[in-house]
């Protein structure tokens, strides 16, 4: 194996690069001229005209382009990729996640992490699971790679928060057991294709 | 590697049309691997005998189908690896392996590094043609570390093979599974090899060979390492991590002097604690085998340490006051070099009883033989030797690498062996039929060497006084023995039909007394052998033997007559065709012995480094100033193979290191590893930067880690050896300073997967007479220990471990490894 990584002992120093963003005018007069030029460009009135047209339409023709968010919300496509949900098995109430770690591996922003253990029933148990939504880019790879359809993207897209890092734990994402009847089988990103059965070769079984 | 690839042992073969130079007598598979040609193989293990369980390495050699793992190369051989028939067989074999194999790759610990997965994909098995009812097989724990899931097992027998051929425990074996019979129809329709492979697979499963549910083995975990699937996993590791999540840190096993190659495999501890944790240890199992301490003693790090400035200045004060620094062999070459520099600059005494005796022994040996170090290593021994002699080493406990080599020579090289040791070990006879064991009395190690001289020396080369001395033990006796003799007797018998008398010859066996002269070797009797039988046994052992080696252990260094023993060893080397290897007692003892000028005693204010002292530097987290443990620092270690091996830091360490103390005391370079190039060249080290040291094995299995110490061999006169003194033999209650297998020091003791306790180990019979707890009274002190019965010990000698530095067992034993003691029940 390559030993290169063990030869860098400057742990913690990173390489920052500055972008070329041009120079800012330094003198007061030059700055003033820049502001006046930007303010009185004709484009301002083009924009105001568009707004005026839309206002008149809404007032007199009852033709609204917007809805009353947050009191109203637009319907969302099942393929939309918002905050993750962890589904559970309808029959037993156990969670579907088997702790295979594929979502953790495939995650390109490296925001999924899980702890697993050997439980009393000799099975692999997911003892904790977390997604850092501050880093998640909602690419949907986790849902696509999941062999059990356990992790899916839900429709909850409001994820503004006060902190950059926002962690969700397993319990936050699992379907609550009392709302099991509301859990819907996911047919969005990563779901089994409708003709999946036709693509499978049958394996001979002795029983 | 000592075996030089000369032109005359290389031959040319053709694999798939390309010509390759390969070593004569090599298996086709190994020859292909050495030349980077891929032939699929599941059950074959390099360095072990072929099992022919998987049959997937099928190739065509000179038009005939053979198994690459057990067919040897011949000059001009033409090998084809993929004829249509072979491809069909392979595909069928992989399909069979996939029959009823649980589809639980999602949770399986092996997923991602599983050979069944790999070959199924490699051979593009995308459908299944065979079926059979499955058998219920329950998951079992074989020991405190072994976890076996027979459902996942493909019975490739790699685990049983490595346990038998390499480790020597033979603790597991194949047993009957009780599965369904194969449908007879398959015999006609299936490829032939696939059918017979399946027929065998369907009948077997792995189980402990002692017939119980639990293995009684050394818990080395090598079976886990070689398992191609997830059937064998360490109990501690089950379902805790996926293979691909772990980062591999190349390192050296820190505890025994084997210096085995290991990888620390780390990943963040948990979701809450993102600091790295070592989850397991893996190794390049094709080329190196680990013992239990190397595999399971890994979590000995000094955790949560920060820079404690008060402690640091206290340490500086202590060093200024100190007269002596006491340390052990759990130290890198670089640190040893620092201590030596400190000694040179400040006159500090260096006290290390663990290594001092070994260092003296090496000096005696060098003076007598002219060789600066021993002449062979375990790798060379396993490759070449067919006769090994072990003297003064408790193989199972002291040096796992020597134990593996001793066993491997018996199993693979059709070898023979002589084992001299006062403590009986039930494991040794199992190594091979041709192993003779001498459980001699304590103090007769010299006699053993004289016997070796008698048996192997070129008598013309031996000095005449030695020759006479050896001859003086031989007695010729006249014995009367009874022997069967067949005689032909002629008789006259009346033939009833004709009524005439006829002469008939009959054969009659009679017992006849005969007088014969027997030469008996008094040395054999003295060493506890049976002289009357030994000659025949030895003659059988010597049949077709060509390459001889001798292993020497710690008993000889801690011996009143160590100097004479070293001379005898030199004499053996000079007059017999025997190469020698010595076990450095523990960890980096050889490095310390070469680098440091050690003193014979401690005096005044003492700083202890992982040892007792007035001020304690400790990597165990129990001292006055914290130090990094071996898995937290980089540096080099010197091992039994005379190699200087680089090891890397697996875990973070934020505290002070020895180098920081050196900087403040006498000035030192920036990093610890800057010392690597400063190691003493006149002792065989090379002025090489740490970062330029390689750390890998080549495909031929050549150890290419670090570098080999330069050794010089000067012609020396034959040493003058003394006779041995039978009156020095110890009689009575004897204690032997010996650790249980897997325990070497405080660090193995700290590790959570090592369970052997600090106690008195005795044979089962002896333990019964001792009760639960005893006080072991030495001349200069006593120690109270629990009694543990060890089924593998034979005889009356009890073992007192020394792995806890705080107990100062070295102080109790002094210069000898055996002491007469009084055992008092408590």
What gross morphology of chain A would you assign? extended
Write down the domain tally of chain B. Answer: 5
Q: Biggest sheet of chain A: strands, sense, closure?
A: 3 strands, antiparallel
Ends distance of chain B: 52 Å
**Assembly context of the chains:** heterodimer
CATH topology of the largest domain in chain B: Dimethylsulfoxide Reductase, domain 2
**Element-by-element helix/strand order of chain A:** HHEHEEHEEH
Give the amount of beta strand of chain A, in percent: 5-15%
Principal-axis shape of chain B: globular
Helicity range of the residues of chain A?
10-25%
How would you sum up this structure in a few lines?
Chain A is of the alpha+beta class.
Secondary structure elements and their pairing?
The complex is a heterodimer of chains A (207) and B (826).
Chain A: H1 28-39, H2 43-61, E1 84-86, H3 102-106, E2 112-118, E3 124-132, H4 141-145, E4 151-153, E5 167-169, H5 170-173
Antiparallel strand pairs in A: 1-4, 2-3, 3-5
Chain B: E1 10-15, E2 18-23, H1 28-34, E3 58-61, E4 64-67, E5 78-80, H2 84-98, H3 115-122, E6 140-141, E7 146-148, H4 158-167, E8 172-176, H5 185-189, H6 192-201, E9 204-208, H7 222-226, E10 232-234, E11 247-252, E12 261-268, E13 276-282, H8 292-296, H9 309-321, E14 324-326, H10 333-346, E15 349-351, H11 353-369, H12 378-384, E16 387-391, H13 395-398, H14 400-412, E17 416-420, E18 424-425, E19 435-438, H15 445-456, H16 464-471, E20 474-494, E21 501-521, H17 522-526, H18 531-541, E22 548-552, H19 554-557, H20 562-575, E23 578-582, H21 589-595, E24 606-609, E25 615-618, E26 625-626, E27 635-638, E28 643-647, H22 658-665, E29 707-708, E30 734-737, H23 746-750, E31 760-762, H24 764-770, E32 773-778, E33 781-789, E34 793-794, E35 798-800, H25 809-813, E36 818-820, E37 822-825
Parallel strand pairs in B: 1-5, 14-15, 14-24, 16-17, 16-22, 17-19, 22-23, 24-25, 25-26, 30-35, 31-33
Antiparallel strand pairs in B: 1-2, 3-4, 3-5, 6-7, 7-10, 8-9, 11-12, 12-13, 18-34, 20-21, 27-28, 28-29, 30-36, 32-33, 32-37
Helix pairs in contact in B: 2-6, 4-14, 11-20, 11-21, 12-14, 15-20
């Amino acid at each position: 194996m390559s030993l290169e990584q063990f030869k860098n002992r400057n742990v913690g120093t990173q390489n920052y690069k500055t972008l070329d963003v041009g120079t800012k005018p330094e003198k007061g007069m030059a700055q003033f001229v820049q502001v006046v030029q930007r303010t009185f460009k004709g484009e301002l009135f083009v924009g105001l005209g568009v707004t005026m047209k839309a206002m008149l339409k809404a007032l007199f023709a009852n033709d609204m382009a917007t809805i009353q968010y947050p009191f109203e919300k637009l319907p969302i496509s099942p393929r939309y990729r918002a905050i993750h949900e962890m589904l559970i098995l309808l029959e037993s109430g156990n969670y579907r996640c088997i702790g295979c770690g594929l979502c953790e591996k495939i995650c390109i922003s490296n925001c999924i992490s899980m702890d697993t253990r050997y439980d009393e029933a000799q099975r692999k148990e997911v003892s904790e699971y977390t997604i850092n939504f501050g880093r998640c880019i909602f690419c949907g790879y986790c849902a696509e790679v999941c062999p059990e359809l356990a992790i899916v993207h839900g429709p909850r897209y409001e994820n503004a928060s006060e902190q950059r890092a926002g962690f969700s734990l397993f319990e936050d994402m699992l379907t609550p057991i009392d709302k099991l009847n509301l859990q819907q089988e996911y047919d969005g990103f990563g779901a089994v294709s409708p003709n999946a059965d036709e693509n499978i070769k049958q394996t001979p079984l002795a029983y | 590697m000592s075996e030089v690839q000369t032109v005359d042992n290389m031959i040319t073969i053709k694999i798939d049309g390309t010509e390759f130079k390969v070593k004569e007598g090599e298996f086709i598979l190994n020859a292909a691997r050495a030349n980077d040609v891929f032939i699929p193989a599941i059950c074959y293990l390099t360095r072990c005998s072929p099992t022919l369980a998987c049959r997937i390495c099928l190739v065509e050699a000179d038009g005939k189908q053979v198994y690459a793992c057990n067919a040897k190369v011949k000059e001009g051989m033409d090998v084809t690896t993929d004829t249509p028939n072979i491809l069909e067989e392979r595909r069928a074999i992989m399909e069979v392996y996939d029959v009823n194999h649980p589809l639980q790759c999602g949770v399986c610990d092996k997923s991602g590094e599983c050979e069944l997965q790999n070959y199924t994909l490699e051979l593009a098995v995308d459908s299944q043609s065979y079926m059979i009812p499955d058998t219920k097989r329950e998951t079992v724990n074989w020991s405190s570390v072994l976890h076996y899931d027979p459902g996942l097992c493909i019975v490739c027998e790699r685990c049983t093979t490595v346990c038998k051929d390499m480790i020597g425990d033979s603790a597991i074996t194949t047993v009957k599974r009780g599965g369904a019979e194969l449908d007879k129809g398959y015999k006609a329709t299936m490829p032939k090899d696939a059918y017979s492979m399946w027929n065998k697979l369907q009948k077997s499963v792995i189980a402990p060979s002692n017939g119980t549910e639990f293995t009684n083995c050394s818990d080395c975990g090598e079976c886990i390492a070689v398992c191609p699937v997830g059937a064998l996993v360490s109990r501690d590791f089950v379902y805790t991590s996926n293979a691909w999540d772990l980062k591999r840190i190349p390192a050296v096993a820190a505890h025994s002097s084997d210096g085995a190659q290991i990888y620390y495999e780390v990943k963040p501890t948990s979701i809450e604690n993102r600091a790295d944790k070592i989850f397991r240890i893996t190794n390049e199992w094709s080329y190196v085998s680990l013992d239990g301490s190397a595999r399971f003693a890994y979590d000995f790090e000094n955790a949560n340490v920060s820079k404690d400035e008060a402690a640091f200045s206290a340490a500086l004060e202590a060093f200024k006051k100190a007269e002596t620094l006491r340390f052990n062999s759990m130290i890198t070459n670089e640190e040893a070099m620092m201590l030596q520099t400190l000694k040179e600059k400040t006159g500090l005494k260096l006290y290390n009883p663990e290594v001092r005796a070994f260092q003296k022994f090496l000096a005696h040996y060098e003076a007598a033989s002219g060789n600066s170090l021993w002449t062979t290593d375990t790798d060379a021994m396993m490759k070449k030797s067919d006769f090994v002699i072990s003297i003064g080493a408790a193989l199972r406990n002291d040096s796992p690498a020597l134990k593996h080599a001793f066993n491997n020579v018996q199993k693979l090289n059709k070898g023979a062996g002589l084992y001299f040791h006062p403590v009986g070990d039930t494991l040794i006879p199992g190594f091979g039929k041709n192993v003779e064991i001498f459980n001699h009395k304590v103090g007769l190690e010299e006699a053993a060497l004289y016997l070796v001289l008698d048996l192997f020396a070129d008598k013309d080369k031996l000095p005449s006084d030695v020759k006479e001395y050896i001859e003086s033990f031989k007695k010729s006796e006249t014995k009367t023995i009874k022997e069967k003799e067949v005689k032909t007797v002629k008789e006259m018998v009346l033939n009833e039909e004709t009524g005439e008398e006829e002469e008939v010859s009959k054969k009659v066996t009679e017992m006849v007394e005969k007088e014969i002269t027997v030469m008996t070797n008094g040395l054999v009797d003295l060493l506890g052998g049976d002289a009357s039988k030994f000659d025949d046994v030895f003659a059988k052992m010597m049949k077709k033997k060509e390459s001889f080696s001798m292993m020497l252990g710690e008993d000889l260094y801690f011996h009143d007559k160590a100097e004479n023993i070293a001379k005898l060893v030199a004499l053996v080397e000079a007059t017999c065709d025997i190469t020698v290897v010595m076990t450095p007692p523990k960890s980096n003892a050889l490095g310390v012995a070469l680098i440091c000028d050690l003193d014979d005693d401690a005096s005044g204010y003492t700083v202890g480094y992982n040892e007792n002292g007035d001020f304690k530097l400790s990597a165990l987290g129990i001292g006055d100033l914290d130090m990094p443990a071996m898995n937290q620092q980089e540096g080099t270690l010197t091992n039994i193979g005379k190699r200087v091996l680089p090891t890397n830091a697996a875990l973070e360490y934020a505290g002070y290191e020895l180098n920081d103390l050196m900087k403040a005391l006498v000035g030192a370079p920036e990093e610890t590893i800057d010392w690597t190039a400063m190691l003493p060249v006149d002792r065989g080290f090379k002025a090489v930067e740490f970062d330029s040291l390689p750390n890998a094995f080549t495909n031929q299995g050549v150890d290419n880690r670090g570098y080999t110490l330069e050794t010089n061999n000067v012609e020396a006169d034959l040493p003058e050896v003394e006779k041995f003194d039978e009156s020095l033999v110890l009689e009575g209650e004897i204690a032997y300073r010996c650790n249980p297998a897997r325990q070497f020091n405080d660090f193995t003791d700290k590790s959570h997967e090592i369970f052997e306790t600090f106690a008195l180990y005795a044979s089962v019979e002896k333990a019964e007479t001792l009760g639960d707890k005893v006080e072991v009274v030495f001349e200069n002190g006593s120690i109270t220990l629990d009694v543990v019965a060890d089924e593998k010990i034979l005889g009356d000698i009890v073992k007192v471990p020394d792995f806890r530095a705080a107990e100062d067992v070295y102080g109790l034993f002094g210069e000898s490894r055996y002491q007469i003691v009084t055992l008092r029940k408590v």
